[in-house]
């Protein structure tokens, strides 16, 4: 895997991935930015949420669950020091589907966060990572 980060101006940077995708990163005005892109630490949260969501959806689909939607709400707290690292990260999954068993969602979330998600595994030695979920039942429409 490779990535390149190019300085644009001020505290704005353009991140480009080896797979050909780009994203703008910028800081808030009180850090010299213009708020024209996401913060680098927000990208870490997106990475954990995306990695874990990928696992949860794959596990539920392999279990033949009638999954319609999966949302991961990721929240975190940072310490009040330099560097201002995360002290904890919480993932809240909202799984919508038809007759999706709570036990299947619980298993998928636990497996992802505690075993399969590479981003969570990488951070878990220094950050407390917690998780929970809710299941929203909807009628199946074909």
Write the layout of secondary structure elements.
Elements: E1 3-9, E2 12-17, E3 22-25, H1 40-62, E4 66-78, E5 86-98, H2 102-116, H3 118-123, E6 128-137
Parallel strand pairs: 5-6
Antiparallel strand pairs: 1-2, 2-3, 4-5
Helix pairs in contact: 1-2
Protein name: OsmC family protein
InterPro entries: KH_dom-like_a/b, OsmC/Ohr_fam, OsmC/Ohrsf
Pfam family, one: OsmC
CATH architecture of the largest domain: 2-Layer Sandwich
Q: Number of DSSP strands?
A: 6
Shape: elongated
- State the secondary-structure class: alpha+beta
Measured distance between first and last alpha carbons: 40 Å
According to CATH, the homologous superfamily of the largest domain is K homology (KH) domain
CATH structural fold name of the largest domain: GMP Synthetase, Chain A, domain 3
Structure annotation, total helices: 3
Summarize this, please?
With 142 residues, the protein is of the alpha+beta class.
Structure in words:
The protein is α+β, with helices and mostly antiparallel strands. It has two domains: 1-38, N-terminal domain of TfIIb; 40-137, K homology (KH) domain (GMP Synthetase, Chain A, domain 3), CATH 3.30.300.20. Helices cover 31% and strands 37% of the residues. It contains three helices and six strands. It has helices at 40-62, 102-116, 118-123; strands at residues 3-9, 12-17, 22-25, 66-78, 86-98, 128-137. It has a three-stranded antiparallel β-sheet with strand order 1-2-3, with no helix packed on it. Strand 4 and strand 5 form a beta hairpin. Helix 1 packs across helix 2 (102-116). The longest helix is centred in the middle third of the chain and has 23 residues, at 40-62. The protein is elongated, with a radius of gyration of 18 Å.
């Amino acid at each position: 895997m490779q990535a390149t980060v190019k300085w644009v101006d001020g505290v704005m940077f353009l991140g480009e991935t080896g797979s050909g995708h780009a994203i703008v990163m910028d800081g808030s005005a009180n850090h010299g930015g213009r708020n024209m892109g996401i913060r680098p630490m927000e990208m870490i949260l997106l990475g954990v949420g995306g990695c874990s969501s990928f696992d949860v959806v794959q596990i539920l689909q392999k279990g033949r669950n009638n999954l319609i939607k999966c949302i991961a709400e990721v929240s975190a707290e940072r310490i009040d020091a330099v560097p201002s690292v995360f002290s904890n990260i919480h993932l809240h999954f909202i799984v919508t589907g038809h007759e999706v068993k709570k036990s299947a969602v619980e298993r998928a979330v636990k497996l992802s966060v505690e075993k399969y998600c590479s981003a969570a595994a990488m951070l878990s030695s220094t950050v407390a990572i917690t998780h929970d979920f809710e299941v929203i039942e909807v009628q199946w429409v074909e």
